[in-house]
């Protein structure tokens, strides 16, 4: 098991790493020798990069703190599962160009404040993902300086059968929200106390 101590590897110049449920955190993080845990791949990413989540189930073991501009790309929501295991994803007090998630099935989402962006992020994108919602509390919280926040071609599955569950809560910031071509399934899209433009075409 990876213990956080790693011999020096020649990863300088690389900004793309692979993660597999059958990987090894002592490996090189390549497609042929992927890491096992997302957190391990994040350690190797420089300021900007891409993490490819290969087919299978990827489980969080702690809160995932994002302090780099990262794109997470799965092999499609029917193939790549991110089991949040009740742990949230937070981005706090940083300035980033982009965070994106594509082609991922999110399961075991925390019961509140699951994905929080309280930072200066220019672009936040969720595309072609599935979210299995089992809470009546807000899932996404925006509380920062503002960003282009885009949901596109996602499906939000309301597993608790309660109407009008809030999906996005905006506390502050001039966020430009774009919620386009999604399946919301009894979820209300936005609770907005911030400012900025809103483009809703579910």
Keywords:
single chain, 202 residues, mainly beta, 12-stranded parallel sheet, 5-stranded parallel sheet, 17 strands, 49% strand
What would you note in describing this structure?
The protein is mainly β and 202 residues long. Helices cover 3% and strands 49% of the residues. The chain has one helix at residues 38-44; strands at residues 16-19, 48-53, 56-59, 64-65, 69-74, 80-83, 89-102, 105-107, 115-127, 130-133, 140-143, 146-152, 155-158, 165-172, 176-180, 187-192, 198-201. The longest helix is centred in the first third of the chain and has 7 residues, at 38-44. It is globular and about 45 Å long. The N and C termini lie far apart (43 Å).
H/E series: EHEEEEEEEEEEEEEEEE
Whole-number radius of gyration? 17 Å
Give the total of beta strands: 17
What profile does the largest beta sheet have? Answer: 12 strands, parallel
Helix amount: under 10%
Strand content: over 45%
Terminal-residue CA separation: 43 Å
Number of helices: 1
Task: Give me the secondary-structure category.
Answer: mainly beta
The low-pLDDT segments are 6-10
Report the average pLDDT across residues. Answer: 82
Shape: globular
Question: What would a concise description of this structure say?
Answer:
This protein is mainly beta.
Please write out the topology.
Layout: E1 16-19, H1 38-44, E2 48-53, E3 56-59, E4 64-65, E5 69-74, E6 80-83, E7 89-102, E8 105-107, E9 115-127, E10 130-133, E11 140-143, E12 146-152, E13 155-158, E14 165-172, E15 176-180, E16 187-192, E17 198-201
Parallel strand pairs: 1-2, 2-5, 3-6, 4-7, 5-7, 6-8, 7-9, 8-10, 9-11, 9-12, 10-13, 11-14, 12-15, 14-16, 15-17
